[in-house]
Structure formats: structure tokens, C-alpha cells
Amino acid sequence: GRLGERPGRGMSTGRIGHYRSVRDGSDTGTQKPSGSGGATGALAALTQRADSFLSWGEVLVYFAAAIILTLGGALLVGDAVSTFADLLLDGQPVLAAATELLSVLLLVFVFVELLGAVRKTLRERRLLAEPFLLVGIIASIKEIVVVAGAERPKEGGFAEFRDGMVEIGVLSGVVLVLAIAALLLRMREEKPAEESDATSVP
After folding, report:
1. Which pTM does this prediction carry?
2. Is residue 145 a contact partner of residue 172, using CB atoms and an 8 Å limit?
3. How far apart are CA 59 and CA 125, in angstroms?
4. How far apart are CA 120 and CA 62, in angstroms?
């Protein structure tokens, strides 16, 4: 009688039990994921939204800074021309009026370089050091012009002349250091571009 039993009953029972374990997630190879995956996805989505919001805020701040620098530079140009004309009309020497004009125009160049730094930062999405080095060079040259031209330390006593020469020497050293730093930075940025061009040539 046992030989007449159908051999597929035990096999079908095993398959049913396996399918139930897969459906319920009790099988070791097909367990249902825990809730940590959903929490990680929600955190990633929140981080992405916050990053997008902060990126727009950064752009708005840079845009406002660019507007302020543009208006400030335009006002300085007008003030420089007006001051130069007033000094000449008041009978001041041309050299003194020109020195004052040059001092204000160098300040305008500082505004222009800062505006260029903002533009490059928005375009390349990273902060560049070279424009700020140029701003430092221009500001140091402006102070040299003020000390040597407007204050005229040689017209005072020996102590004033000595202090003026020391200040001019320090400012000249600052200009030299900043110029070397800007040159090295530009050489470092141009070297990878030359290497990539060389590798691209067959």
C-alpha cells in the first residue's frame, strides 16, 4: 500500500512551506528591509533640500554684494572727478589734486576687483584667492601713494620722514609678497591645464 502512494505529496508540501516563508519574509535570504532605509532616504532628501535652499541664499547674497560694489564704484568715480575739479578751482597745485584723484581711483580699482571676485565665484562655484591678492596689492599701492604723495614725509622733521620711509618699505614688502603669491598661484593653476592638453594630444 505504501508503494502506491503518490511521490509528489512531500515535495508539494515543502514548496508550499517555502512559498509561505518567502511571503512572510521569514526566509533568511529574502528578509524584509528594516525601517532604517526609509529614515536614511528621508534624511538624504531633507539634506538635498537644505543644500538647494542654502545655494539659492548664497547666490542672493553674492548678487546683493555685486550691486553694492557696482554702486559704490560709480559713486567713487563721481566723487573723484568732483574732488579733483574742486581742488583745481580752489587754487591747489595740480600735483596735490592729481594725488588725491589717484588715491580715490585706486580705491575704485579695489571695488572693481572685488566685483570680479564675486563674478568668478558665482561662475565657477568656488572661492578664488587671486582676486583678493590683487585687492591687497592695489590697497598697498594706494597707501604708498597716500604716504608719499599726500602726507609728504620729507616736508616734516626727521622723525616723520623716518616713519614715512619705514611705512613705505613695509608696504612695498607686502606688495612684493602678494605679487609672488599671485604668480605662484597662477602657475599652479596653469600647470594642470597644460598637462591635460599634453595628454589629449595623440
Report:
1. 0.62
2. no
3. 10
4. 11
